[in-house]
Amino acid sequence: MSESMNQPIHDPILSIKNLTVVYKDTLFSLKKSRFSRPAVDGVSLDVPHRGTIGIVGESGCGKSTIAKSILMMTEPCGGEILFNGTGLDSWRRNRLAYYSKVQMIWQDPFSSINPKMRIQEIISRPLHNFFHLSSDEIAQRLHATIRKVGLTEDHLVMYPHELSGGGRQRVTIARALISEPILLIADEPTSALDVSIQAQILNLLKELKQDMALSMVFISHNISVVEFLCDSICVMYMGRIVESAPREVLVKDHRHWYTTLLFESLPNGPRPKERKFKVDLGELAVCEKGCSFAPRCIRAEKLCFESSPDLVEIGPDHFCACHFHA
Amino acid sequence: MKIDRKIDRKIKKYINNKKFLIGSCMLLVMVVLSLFAPLITGYGYDETFVGPALEPPSKDYWFGTDRLGRDMFTRVIYGTRISLISALTITSICFAIGVLLGLLAGYYGGVIDMFVMRVVDIFFSLPWVLIGLLVVVIRGPGLLSVVISLSLAYFPSFTRITRSVVLSVREQDFVIAARLTGESNANIIFRYILPNCFSALIVQASIIMSFAILGEAALSYLGYGIRPPEPSWGVLLQQSTNYMWDNSYLVILPGLFIVFTVLSFNFMGDGLRDLLDPRYKRAYE
Lengths: 326, 285
Ligand SMILES: Nc1ncnc2c1ncn2[C@@H]1O[C@H](COP(=O)(O)OP(=O)(O)O)[C@@H](O)[C@H]1O
Ligand SMILES: [Mg+2]
Known about the structure:
heterodimer; A: eight-stranded mixed β-sheet; 13 helices; B: 13 helices; binds adenosine-5'-diphosphate
């Protein structure tokens, strides 16, 4: 712990460069990766120290794969990831140190905690594994942490099934934060929760981010959730970043048609007057050569099916991968 | 307060399950009989000519007497001791070996899985009588031979069940999350995976208990197992076969004890299977 305090913190704290991940199908794998296209294709992004980056996109676009790569749970096929200025290849040799600084919150609070462990054990296990602390110190930090996430002492002796979804998600947040990490990956932490609880958890994360000086990668399929929490937002489609910008810019001046679609898909989002919807064969229609979004895009022209647009800077910190971004 | 009520509800759930209740009561009768055997009967199990030989059941000799005038009731309830103890030993050994191998095979997969499962398949494919015969040829008859041969015969079922449960538990998020909290492989296996396998294993353990009782009786009957004068149920049956046409009580009564005990474990197993099945819980709670 003290070691991480003394170490100078590198800015950006996390830097992903040209990450590419391809899932290789084994003979018996249940999840067949369609078309054997990469799940993540040349993604680059930087997470500034104490900043929050949002990744948004429909399910299957590779968001979780990025999270898994950051946490060294998949082997990347290309590109590199630097944490605090050091490549993951070096961190691989010292996983405990890495995981004490980089932690994750999961989508499903029902499957991500051990049903046969008491809450206090679930939350304090990281301390036992990462640090050599006396039982007093562990108890002290346990109590401090549960107070931070809004659990009470009564919860400590319970088993997970006695808690609601929101309560369980607080447990996973406490488990992730008890080792005082500097980077938190949140993979759709609210999508399995009731709407009323979602807001509580989002507010909690926002508070904790401030209090604990966290840097965060926040993943969601819901652009309004990302908008609430993040300083800048990356929109992903089929394994690629199609648009990224600081939050205000992305909300007011998004240029990619897919970003527009994401905003329009919100329950109280903007409604276009005439809905010229391309038939949503999006999943099936894959354009091999050109822009992968072209089959679903109303602006698509011949060019879009022939060449894939690069991610180009079209404004300060505003990147867009569209031939017709203007 | 709250916890008390929760435990209450749990106990009620078990009592409401008729099969489990009947099975455990039957088992309790057997355990009490075997524990308090010296208090229940005044005779020794090996005391000859406590009465006339081959006396049918009567007020003094509830199950009659055998050819040496030994009290059959005494011998049968002392036999309960041997049966329950050997069944418990066999099941525990099977559980320990079988579950450990299943955890290793399921968790590590690959070559370890391949090797362990082929060894298990070999024992699975051998009939238990054959295994018993082999062990007896090697190290002579006796209780230890029974325990060794039945343990070898029955541990594969634990390995298979454990492995299949581990394969599904291993993929759950909480196991992956455990790795991120810095848990070692041993901790993941014993703190995260094993506790989630128990419900399937408890049911299997009760089934293996009944198999072990039958197996011990059969091996002892064949003369591979417990030797006279120890009054195992198998020994009692074997010693009575010559007289069974005229003195049928000599085989019927020990036989009923075997049936009763095996049934008690089967009922308990059936009840536990329902009680530990999460779908059942949802439907009946
Ligand atoms: N373990 C896996 N094996 C093979 N393909 C996978 C695996 N996990 C994910 N995929 C595929 O990779 C793509 C991206 O998945 P994922 O990163 O989980 O998307 P998201 O989190 O955005 O919903 C999907 O097409 C999915 O089918
Ligand atoms: Mg996902």
